[in-house]
Amino acid sequence: MGFLRTIDNDSVAQLPAARFPGRIVIVDSDAKVEAACCDLQRSAVIGFDTETRPSFRAGVSYKVGLLQLSTDTVCYLFRLSHIRLDNRILKILGSRQILKVGADVTGDIRSLHALRHFHADGFVDLQVEASRWGIEEKSLRKLSAIVLGERVSKAQRLSNWEAESLTSQQQEYAATDAWICPRILNAMQQREPKEEGLSIISVAPTIASTERGKGAHGSGHRRRSRRNHRTEPTKGE
Q: What is the pTM of this model?
């Protein structure tokens, strides 16, 4: 039996809430970056997302304030409004050996390129992969509902991600958004898709920086990997 193609908001609202069950680590100083990156480099697959402070005034925008990278048990919240996008972080974002799974990843990478130019590689976009199972929905909320039968809350989406400190609700929201992405991919991979392999996304900084006006998929180069890369956590996570 395949997945639903679409799902309505009322059906999503009736599902149990998804909540990250692991440890959340705030990375808000250079001293904390090393330990976080060392742990993340031991994982073959991690969840990926970003958050940006919303603007409610025309002509006013903000740069990405939070980068979430999550293993199965620990989610690291890199407060990019407080620390720089360190080379140790960029090493992970540019590694093809570490799969970073998210939704609308080229849009997130484009936002990160506004902070620093770097070559991004090893990314998997759920919006791209879901179509291989006949799923028409693109939002993380509905992808989670269809594939996992769990509701991802969006209550904190428009909160201030540059605040002096993040609330517990913000932390849980941000961690869940990143952590759930590999779970969705892994659940999809348990069923036979229409074609084999994953679309591994690579985004060059020069392309992203010159095409910021394009849509989410207008600034990336995708390279097709024909191997069946499963997303179970590696040992020791």
A: 0.85
| Cα gap 104→30, rounded to integer Å | 28
Number of CB atoms found within 10 A of residue 128's CB: 19
pLDDT digits (tens, 9 = 90+) for 179-226: 999 999 999 999 877 666 789 999 998 543 434 333 333 334 444 444
The per-residue pLDDT for range 104-131, each reduced to its tens digit, is: 999 999 999 999 999 999 999 999 999 9
Q: Would you list the DSSP string of 193-223?
A: -SS-SEEEEEE-HHHHHH-TTS-TTSS-EEE
Q: What is the largest CA-CA distance in the chain?
A: 49
Asked if 191 and 82 count as a contact pair (C-beta separation under 8 A), the reply is no
Question: Cα–Cα distance between 131 and 129 in angstroms, integer?
Answer: 5
Q: Are 140 and 181 in contact (CB under 8 A)?
A: yes
Q: Residue 139 has which token pair? A: 């939002």
Distance from C-alpha of 189 to C-alpha of 229, rounded to nearest angstrom: 9
